[in-house]
Amino acid sequence: MKIISFEGIEGVGKSTQIDLLHDYLLNAGKSVKKFREPGSTIPSEKIRNILLDANLTLTSQTELLLMYASRSELVANEILSNQHDFILLDRYFDASMAYQGYGRNLNKDFINSLKTFINAPDPDLTILLDIDPIKGFERKSGDSMDRIESSGLKFFNDVRNGYLELANQYPRIKCIDAEKDANTISLEIINLVESL
Ligand code: TMP
Q1: Which H, E and C letters describe the chain, residue by residue?
Q2: Which position among 84, 137, 173, 176 has the lowest Cβ density within 10 Å, counted as fewest Cβ atoms?
Q3: Which mean pLDDT values do the consecutive 10-residue runs of the chain (196 residues) have?
């Protein structure tokens, strides 16, 4: 079983790329399961609703712990026992480091300890789709903003720079320019997956 996670700020085109890779792998005869974070189990989807509710105010600490509560359910009930050839994750623990560590300035060692605490396995490959936050939000203009999306430009610049630092730190994270056209990006991703 190979775990491939997709990361990046809002508007980078993660869902499109996950769907394209999903179809490619199915056509190649592989079994594939997709999950999104936060979410994808019944309790995790309920936690997601709290996390994204624009009418709620949450402390950064609560935000981090709820992200990990959701992740703990997903890891324990879906990931660790999974028998598929590939798991595709629309965000995973790197998102907590980028958003809550770099974006909200929470303690990074503590965030890493949560990953160990819930036994979250490392992905075999992480695709980081990178874009300037202003351009990312332009692509999403028209959608109403959830609680996290309403965090402002400085927050999203910090998150983006956090992701880029993580990509420098961990060779499993491959950074792709999200401004290229979707088919070019998809071919790059397929090449990375083939080389696993
Ligand atoms: P999305 O699934 O629509 O992208 O929304 C998820 C939001 O949650 C997005 O703004 C990123 C944020 N997020 C975190 O802040 N930390 C995390 O660990 C994860 C998984 C997501």
Answers
A1: CEEEEEECCCCCCHHHHHHHHHHHHHHCCCCEEEEECCCCCHHHHHHHHHHHCCCCCCCHHHHHHHHHHHHHHHHHHHHCCCCCCEEEEECCHHHHHHHHHHHCCCCHHHHHHHHHHCCCCCCCEEEEEECCHHHHHHHCECECCCCCHHHCHHHHHHHHHHHHHHHHHCCCEEEEECCCCHHHHHHHHHHHHHCC
A2: 84
A3: 97 97 98 98 98 97 98 98 97 98 98 98 98 93 89 97 98 98 98 97
Kindly list the protein residues whose Cβ atom lies closer than 6 A to any atom of ligand 1: 10, 36-38, 67, 91, 95-96, 99-100, 148-149
Domain ranges of the chain: 2-194
* Index of the ligand 1 atom closest to the CA of residue 37: 20
State if pTM tops 0.85.
yes
